[in-house]
Design goal:
The chain is 77% helix and 0% strand. With 432 residues, the protein is mainly α. The two termini are 32 Å apart.
Length: 432
C-alpha cells in the first residue's frame, strides 16, 4: 500500500473543513454586507442573495452523481479550484460598472461549487477514516468549520472595514478582501492535491449507471414522502426558523444602516466585531450547550426550552431598533444574547432532522431534510428586505416576533420518542 493512502488525518481534516465552511459563509453573509456597502437596497440584497440558497436545496438530487462520477478526492480538488476562481472573478469585477451582474454570476458559481464540495468532503471523510477515527475527528471537523464562520463573517469583514476606512475606496477594499479568499483557495487546492490520502475505497463506481441512480433516487424520495408524520415534519422543517430566516438577512443591514432610517449606524469594522465575531462565538457556545443538555435528558425534554430560546431573544432587535443605543456594550449584549439563544435552540432542529431520518436510507433522508432546511431559509429570506422597507425596522422586528408563533404552535404536534438523543441510550437509531 502506498504511503499516501495513510496520511495522518490531522494533516488534512482541519483544512478540508475550514475550506468547506468558508465559501458557504461568503455566499450567505459576506455577500450581504458587501452589497450593502455598495449601496444596494435591502429589498434587492435579500432578493439576490436569498436565491443563492438554491444549490443547497437541490443538493440531494445531484449527490448520487457525485458518488458515481470520478472520485471524491477529484471532486474536492476540482471544486476548490472553481471556488478560488469564483472568488478571483468577484475580486476582478467589483471595481467595474457591471459589478452587480458579474459578481452575482460568480456567487452562483461559488454556491454550486460549495454545495458539491460539501457532498464530496463529507463522503471522503467516511471513506478515508475508519469508524474510530470518524468518531474522534467529528468534533475536530466541526470546530474548524466554525472557525471558518468566524473568519468569514468576522475577520474578513473587519478586514474589509479597515480597508474601507484606510483607503476611502469601497470597491477596492472589497476587491482586496476577495483576492485574499482567492489566495486561500489557491493554497487549499495546491495543498490538498498532495495532502489528501487516496483510500482504495474512493473509486469511480462505473457499475452504477445514471439510469440506475435515478431509479434509486425515485425509491428514496417515495420512501421519504410516505413516512409517518411527514406533514408535521415538513411544516416543522420549513417553519421552525421562519423568524430567524427573515432576521438573519437583515441583521447586518440593520447594524450598518444610518440612524435616520432606523439602523444603528455602525462601521463595517464594528459590525464585523460585534455580529461576525462576538455573535458567532456566542452562537457556537449556544450550540455546544444545547448538545450537552440534550444528551442528558433527550430531545423531547428539551424541545420546548430550545424552541423558546430560538424565538424569544429576537426581542433584543426590537429593543435595539426602539432605543438605538450608541454604546457598543448594549449592542454587543443584545447580539450575543440572541445568537446564544439561536445556537441553543437550533440544536433541537438538527436533532429532529436526525430523528425523522431514522430507518432505511437514513443518510439520503437526512440529506433531503437539510434541503428543506435550506428552503425554509430561502423563501422568507427573499422577501425579508421588501417587508423591512415597507414596514421600517421597528415594525419589521414586531413582525419577526409574530412570526415565532408558527414555531411554537407546531411543537405539541410532534411525536418524539422519550429517550431519543440521550447519550446513555444505546439505540442504533440514535446514531442515524
Amino acid at each position: 500500500m502506498k504511503t499516501v493512502r495513510n496520511r495522518n488525518p490531522w494533516s488534512w481534516i482541519p483544512t478540508l473543513y475550514f475550506a468547506e465552511g468558508l465559501p458557504y459563509v461568503s455566499v450567505m453573509v459576506i455577500s450581504v454586507v458587501m452589497y450593502k456597502r455598495f449601496g444596494l437596497s435591502n429589498a434587492d440584497i435579500t432578493l439576490y442573495t436569498g436565491w443563492l440558497y438554491l444549490p443547497w436545496i437541490i443538493k440531494p438530487f445531484w449527490s448520487p452523481f457525485v458518488d458515481i462520477l470520478k472520485t471524491k478526492r477529484w471532486w474536492i480538488i476540482t471544486m476548490q479550484l472553481l471556488i478560488g476562481a469564483g472568488f478571483a472573478g468577484i475580486a476582478f469585477t467589483l471595481p467595474t460598472p457591471f459589478y452587480l451582474r458579474a459578481s452575482l454570476a460568480f456567487f452562483w458559481l461559488l454556491a454550486f461549487s460549495s454545495a458539491t464540495h460539501d457532498i464530496a468532503a463529507d463522503g471522503f471523510y467516511m471513506l478515508a477514516l475508519n469508524d474510530s477515527q470518524q468518531s474522534f475527528f467529528v468534533g475536530i471537523r466541526s470546530t474548524f468549520y466554525r472557525f471558518a464562520s468566524i473568519t468569514g463573517q468576522g475577520l474578513l469583514i473587519i478586514l474589509a472595514g479597515f480597508l474601507e476606512k484606510s483607503t476611502g475606496n469601497i470597491p477596492f477594499a472589497w476587491s482586496i478582501t476577495f483576492f485574499v479568499l482567492a489566495g486561500l483557495f489557491a493554497a487549499f487546492f495546491t495543498g490538498h492535491r498532495f495532502l489528501l490520502p487516496r483510500p482504495a475505497s474512493d473509486a469511480e463506481q462505473a457499475a452504477h449507471t445514471p439510469r440506475e441512480i435515478v431509479g434509486e433516487l425515485r425509491k428514496i424520495l417515495l420512501s421519504f414522502f410516505t413516512k409517518k408524520g411527514i406533514g408535521q415534519a415538513l411544516l416543522f422543517m420549513l417553519l421552525y426558523r421562519l423568524a430567524e430566516a427573515m432576521l438573519v438577512k437583515l441583521t447586518y443591514p440593520f447594524l450598518l444602516d444610518s440612524r435616520e432610517v432606523g439602523g444603528l449606524g455602525l462601521s463595517t469594522q464594528d459590525a464585523g466585531i460585534i455580529y461576525g465575531t462576538a455573535g458567532t462565538i456566542a452562537l457556537i457556545l449556544g450550540g455546544i450547550a444545547g448538545g450537552i443538555v440534550a444528551s442528558r435528558q433527550g430531545l423531547k425534554y428539551w424541545i420546548w426550552p430550545m424552541a423558546l430560546a430560538i424565538t424569544l431573544p429576537n426581542l433584543a432587535y426590537l429593543l435595539l431598533a426602539i432605543y438605538q443605543p450608541e454604546h457598543l456594550l448594549w449592542i454587543n449584549t443584545a447580539i450575543i444574547t440572541e445568537q446564544f439563544g439561536y445556537g441553543f435552540g437550533f440544536t433541537a432542529y438538527m436533532l429532529y432532522l436526525i430523528y425523522f431520518s431514522r430507518g432505511e436510507h437514513k443518510t439520503a433522508h437526512y440529506s433531503i431534510c437539510t434541503g428543506f432546511m435550506a428552503l425554509g431559509m430561502m423563501l422568507p429570506g427573499i422577501i425579508a428586505g421588501k417587508l423591512q422597507e415597507s414596514l421600517g425596522y421597528i415594525n419589521f422586528f414586531i413582525l419577526i416576533l409574530i412570526a415565532v408563533i408558527p414555531t411554537l404552535a407546531l411543537i405539541p404536534f410532534l411525536k418524539i420518542d422519550k429517550d431519543f438523543g440521550k447519550a446513555k441510550k444505546k439505540n442504533s437509531d440514535q446514531n442515524a
